[in-house]
Amino acid sequence: MANMHGDETVGRELLLHLIDYLVTRHGKDLEVTSLINSTWIHIMPSMNPDGFEAVRKPDCYSSNGRENYNQYELNRNFLDAFEYHNVPRQPETLAVMKWLKSETFVLSANLHGGALVASYPFDNGVP
Ligand SMILES: [Zn+2]
To answer: Which positions fall inside the Peptidase M14 domain (predicted)?
Structure first.
């Protein structure tokens, strides 16, 4: 999954290229064919398409597109084991939560832009 923050666009492009890579090599490349034939692969290039559209018109003075259309920070819109976020769940968040419950994911990644960060479940608790 990528582009949760609409202004972080590199992950979105990477995942679109990954999709292209996988589908154009299926049946031609043994590893890609085996991977596709033996696993379920889910790819969401953009969790925040409205934010992405907003950033397509940069004004150089603000960070358009980080939030969704309703101006909510989607990265802070999920349930949190340690902090209570008293904000309404956004349609994008609810859709991802439903998606996560519908599949048995064994490996996942959420691509952001900017500094290098590696997060893991429950990594924001108080020590
Ligand atoms: Zn981000």
So the answer is: 1-127
Residue 2 in 3-state DSSP? strand
Taking phi first (over 0 means left), then psi (-120 to 50 degrees means alpha), and beta for anything else, what does residue 99 get? Answer: alpha
How far, in Å, is the centroid of ligand 1 from the Cα of 73? 9
Q: What is the mean pLDDT of residues 68-96?
A: 91
Sketch the domain layout of the chain as residue ranges.
Answer: 10-102
| Residue 53 CA, ligand 1 centroid: distance in Å | 16
Write phi, then psi, for 71 (nearest 5 degrees): 70, 35
| Alpha-helical regions (H) of the chain | 10-25, 30-38, 49-55, 91-102
Render pLDDT for 33-50 as a digit per residue (tens, 0 to 9).
Answer: 999 999 999 999 999 999
Exposed, middle or buried: residue 124 (CB in 10 Å: 0-12, 13-18, 19+)? exposed
Distance, CA 5 to ligand 1 centroid (Å)? 5
